[in-house]
């Protein structure tokens, strides 16, 4: 079954089964759902979006990276940032990764390998799998979800099954990277979501 055939039955549900009457928020929710399905089906977005995240993203526990050391396949491979923020690498052992950028990890690897192991090592690092995000509160299926590059609060809500009838639609609270000191309040649906974020959808008061 192709992607359009998978989406059409979902669209019919939000169209009210042909009654011509849409439920509240159904139109924008379908757009968000469609965008999320396309993102998951097609993978990450264009190179520009990936490059931007690659340059600004700070690594954290749960991220999986690929390390490539030119001419040294035994030192190359896929590694995960563990719960203490460290990456265990061949030859040089554990190296701190959490809180630093991909570029900083590359430089730390070069420095470690140049310290008595290799002459002028050439190292590249890329993120294979970003750590998940969490969505809580007034959504139908709260929990942990895989991060998709370029996603927004609206995409996150769609992945979690949509708003409950009690939700205050159009506003969210985002704890960036799970850091209680970095909280975005009253975030609109278009607000970007990043790996490790905790999204809370509030309850309306009427």
How are the elements arranged and paired?
Layout (H helix, E strand, L loop, with lengths): L2 H12 L11 H17 L4 H10 L7 E6 L7 E4 L5 E4 L3 E4 L5 H13 L8 E7 L3 E5 L5 E3 L7 H7 L12 E4 L7 E5 L10 E4 L5
Parallel strand pairs: 6-10
Antiparallel strand pairs: 1-2, 1-5, 3-4, 6-7, 8-9, 8-10
Helix pairs in contact: 1-2, 2-5
Report on this structure:
The structure is a single chain. This protein has 206 residues and is of the alpha+beta class. The chain has 5 helices and 10 strands; from the N terminus they run αααββββαβββαβββ. A hairpin with a 5-residue loop joins strand 6 and strand 7.
Tell me the helix content. Answer: 25-40%
Average pLDDT number: 81
Characterize the main sheet. 5 strands, mixed
Number of H- or I-type helical stretches:
5
Give the total of beta strands.
10
Gap between N and C termini, in Å? 42 Å
Strand content: 15-25%
Q: How do the SSEs run, as a string of H and E?
A: HHHEEEEHEEEHEEE
- Shape assignment: elongated
Q: Could you give the order of strands across the largest sheet?
A: 7-6-10-8-9
What is the alpha-carbon Rg in Å? 21 Å
Low-confidence stretches: 1-25, 40-50
Question: Helix/strand-derived class?
Answer: alpha+beta
């Amino acid at each position: 079954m192709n992607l359009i055939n998978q989406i059409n039955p979902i669209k019919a549900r939000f169209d009210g089964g042909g009654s011509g009457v849409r439920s509240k928020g159904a139109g924008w929710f379908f757009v968000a759902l469609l965008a999320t399905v396309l993102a998951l089906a097609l993978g990450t977005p264009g190179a520009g979006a990936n490059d931007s995240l690659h340059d600004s993203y700070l690594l954290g526990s749960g991220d999986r990276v690929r390390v490539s050391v030119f001419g040294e396949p035994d030192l190359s491979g896929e590694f995960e940032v563990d719960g203490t923020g460290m990456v265990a690498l061949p030859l040089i052992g554990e190296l701190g990764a959490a809180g630093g950028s991909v570029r900083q990890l590359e430089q730390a690897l070069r420095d470690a390998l140049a310290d008595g192991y290799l002459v002028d090592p050439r190292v590249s690092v890329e993120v294979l799998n970003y750590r998940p995000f969490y969505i809580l509160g007034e959504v139908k299926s709260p929990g942990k979800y895989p991060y998709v590059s370029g996603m927004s609060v609206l995409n996150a809500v769609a992945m979690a099954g949509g708003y409950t009838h009690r939700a205050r639609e159009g506003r969210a609270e985002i704890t960036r990277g799970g850091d209680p000191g970095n909280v975005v309040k009253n975030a609109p649906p278009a607000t970007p979501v990043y790996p490790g974020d905790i999204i809370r959808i509030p309850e309306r008061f009427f």
